[in-house]
Amino acid sequence: GAVGTQYTNVFTVAGAETQLTGKRIYGEIDPDYDYSTEGTPIEIGALIDDFDTYVARKVTVTGVITSKVGNSIFLEQNNRGIYIYTGYSLTNELQIGFEVTIQGLVPAVYFESMQLSNYKYENMKLESIDNPVTITTILGDQMSQYVGRVVNFENLTIQSIDPSPTNNAYTVIVKDDSNNTISLRVDDYTASFLPSHLFVVGNQISVFGPVTQYYDGFQLMLPGLGNIVFKD
Fold first, then answer.
1. What pLDDT score was predicted for residue 117?
2. Residues 6+ away with beta carbon under 8 Å from 176
3. Confidence (pTM)
């Protein structure tokens, strides 16, 4: 965090000198860290139901990729789904409909939402391709039952567009036919090719995408333009 400040050179030199020692993150072995790649095999549903037990421990899961937001994926097994954060590297090996087994994933809680991280290509095994993805049409008051799964909303009326104060991300607030308020989230990556001006207050849309939890609420992630039907 020192780049561009008056301390840039000080921290750059200190970092270089520390790297030469081979200590801590530069090579020292941490006796309390699990360096294995395997992880405990567990079904996605069982992991979700006992998530606190596995936080910061490595697990191995198998499932079908049902959606992709940026480089990260949503994985589903037996009607239970979870978000897997893969970082900023390209993940062309992970495609919707692929069934995969991934070792060494680390459960974590982010904004009160359960997710898995520590994805590595070499820890992924492709089991099969062309698996069907079930997309269920629901109403806004059912979102809590579908976290981690892909759902469809019909006939949503756009209420407002709320931009992020820190980047290009934004949230589209809509209402369904039962007057439920739903948040459609467009992250910074997706916003680069899905501009907010496409959403016009008062117009109707239908969308599908994965449901995530955000603190004590729920939102639908919009992976791209192909997930939206503009009615007006």
1. 96
2. 139, 140, 153, 154, 155, 156, 182
3. 0.85
Contact indicator for 68, 134 with CB cutoff of 8 Å: no
Residue 161 pLDDT class (50, 70, 90 cuts): very high
Q: Which residue has the tokens 């333009």?
A: 225
Three-state SS at 227: helix
Beta carbons of 128 and 182 less than 8 angstroms apart: no
Q: Is 49 exposed, middle or buried (0-12, 13-18, 19+ CB in 10 A)?
A: exposed
pLDDT of residue 80: 98
Non-local (6+) Cβ contacts of 55 within 8 A are: 107, 108, 109
> What does the alpha-carbon distance between residue 181 and residue 188 come to, in Å, rounded to a whole number?
22
pLDDT at 55 over 80: yes
H or E segment at 188?
A: helix 188-191
pLDDT band at 232 (very low <50, low <70, confident <90, very high): confident
On whether the CB atoms of residues 105 and 94 are closer than 8 A, the answer is no
- Between strands 80-84 and 113-117, the pairing is parallel
